[in-house]
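Subject: Heat stress transcription factor A-4a-like

B.,
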Amino acid sequence: MAHNFPKGLPVFHMRIYKLVEDPESDPIISWGKDNNSFVIWNLEEFDRRNIVDKFDCNRFSQFRADLRHYGFRRIKKGSGELEYGNEDFVRGHPERMKTMMIKAFRKHRAKFEAKEAAKEMQRLQI
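Prediction pasted inline below.
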């Protein structure tokens, strides 16, 4: 299936969208109920198939960190499955991930600038 990904979208976003969209991966990972998240149904099979390797990660913990970095958040559920989503990660609308990417970039830039400002303030107080 061809996807209309916007130019400049990180490879990470495209790979996760394609993986979740692929019906062959549904027993392992698929769209969430509201079509703006994905659920990892079988973490053992996810690990066994080395799916994190497709995302240039060595471990699942690194994959989770990358999910946060790229704008995904963990959706808390009582049943124990792993669900991650974003309001701009929407089934059938891959072009919305561009907005998701921009928001994540701004958030990380603001955190970086705050840390740098704190370091500078600390330096000036010495």
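The chain has one domain: 11-125.

T.
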